[in-house]
Write a structure and sequence with these properties.
The protein is an alpha/beta fold. The protein has helices at 10-13, 44-47, 62-65, 109-117, 347-354, 360-376, 382-400; strands spanning 78-84, 93-94, 120-126, 136-157, 162-183, 188-196, 202-211, 216-225, 228-237, 243-252, 257-266, 272-281, 287-296, 304-313, 319-328, 335-343. The chain contains 7 helices and 16 strands.
């Protein structure tokens, strides 16, 4: 399918008749139940401030995100720098300038705020047929826990190109962010969003992607730091033969809230999708949320899709919410399924290791590492893999202390 060369106007996306109560279960009203039915608007006022009763906010501590429900007065909360790959930065994109808005549709208030607050979008553009060997590393540094910033980032891989883009978040800020991802025909793109914030940081991000014919997107959400981190990826497999691999890893400590609401839409025929998110939790009131929605559309014949979420609870007082959903609108598919599991250590695994002379503490460490490294090893960046494994070791040393 040929890619559009002009971005739809903002007015085309704006629904001026959104009723914020439309997602609230009041008497006589049927709330929005599925991800595909959610309204879209670029005007934050159309959504109103979430109350926590809405279907997409009911597991989120909305009071802690309230600073992100209005456009930032200034953009001083974060700084951006490129550790590598700055040659792939194109001219900034004001609203209404293609390809900004070609894919992105704000589906909640924080995404609409980020759209309005980001005067110009950062545009990372991979040229046609170019294979970028080294990762493009973008550093997003928070400059203060009380400072605000809004951002819109466009990552575009042109036809038959290949690249890896890493967004690394550190420091502290109150940050609303949109990431718009366009993978054109035959391209292969990996996008890694790495949250290593300080404990005071608040981060809400919407990632939206379209994958065209015979193209592949690998998308990672890895959250270790931050007080409240909500990164919601939405991927449309639009072209015939397109593939999407959505992976996630989180490690929630005491008082942390780490959340991802994942949407994979099989739209074109013969598409393939795999969703796997894993999380570990330790400490009082450590909280993770994973909501996975897969839609296999009426024209998505020959689809092969699976989604799963696995959580390992390491201490008392931690909580993992996990909700998989699957919609299928055609019977002509190769396969589809979903799964979710949350539990403590497997006693049989611990017994097996201890029976071979391994101490209980070391056995627990090995079980957790084995559980989480499955995601780490899919990154394909040795330096980053080593960094994350070291971070997991640090987390484990704290729980055993």
């Amino acid at each position: 399918m040929a890619a559009s060369t002009t971005a739809p106007s903002e007015a085309q996306h704006t629904n001026a008749h959104i009723d914020p109560a439309a997602q609230v279960s009041d008497a006589g009203f049927v709330p929005v139940q599925t991800r595909s039915e959610r309204p879209h608007s670029f005007d934050p006022a159309d959504f109103g401030s979430p109350t926590g009763r809405e279907v997409n906010w009911k597991h989120t501590p909305v009071a802690k995100l309230s600073s992100l429900f209005e456009v930032a007065a200034t953009a001083e909360g974060v700084s951006y720098s490129f550790r590598s790959g700055d040659q792939y930065v194109a001219a900034p994109l004001p609203a209404g300038t293609a390809p900004r808005g070609e894919v992105f549709l704000a589906e909640d208030v924080t995404a609409a705020v980020a759209w309005q607050g980001a005067t110009d979008a950062l545009h990372i553009r991979i040229p046609r047929e170019e294979e970028v060997a080294e990762p493009i590393l973008v550093s997003v540094e928070g400059l203060g826990a009380q400072l605000r910033a809004d951002a819109h980032i466009v990552i575009e891989a042109l036809e038959h190109s290949s690249a890896t883009v890493v967004l690394q978040h550190t420091g502290a800020a109150q940050y609303s962010q949109n990431v718009e991802i366009i993978v054109r025909d035959g391209a292969a793109l990996t996008v890694i969003s790495l949250q290593q914030w300080q404990d005071e940081a608040v981060h809400a991000s919407a990632h939206q992607a379209r994958v065209d014919a015979d193209a592949t997107l690998k998308h990672f959400v890895i959250s270790f730091g931050g007080g409240v981190v909500r990164v919601n990826p939405s991927v449309e497999l639009a072209g015939a033969g397109s593939e999407g691999y959505l992976y996630g890893l989180s490690y929630a400590d005491a008082g942390q809230h780490l959340e991802s609401q994942v949407y994979l839409h099989h739209k074109g025929p013969h598409t393939k999708g795999d969703v796997l998110y894993k999380g570990a939790l330790q400490g009082e009131s450590a909280h993770s949320v994973w909501i996975g929605d897969v839609l296999i559309g009426a024209d998505a014949t020959g689809t092969d899709s699976y989604e799963a979420n696995r959580n390992l609870v390491l201490t008392e007082g931690a909580r993992a919410d996990s909700i998989p959903n699957l919609e299928i609108e055609t019977g002509d598919i190769l396969g589809a399924g979903h799964a979710s599991a949350t539990g403590r250590f497997d006693d049989e695994q611990l017994f097996y290791l201890q029976a071979r002379g391994i101490s209980e503490e070391e056995a627990r460490r090995l079980v957790v590492l084995g559980f989480l490294t499955d995601i780490v090893q899919r990154l394909g960046i040795p330096e980053l893999e080593s960094e994350l494994l070291a971070a997991i070791e640090t987390e484990l040393s704290e729980v055993s202390a």
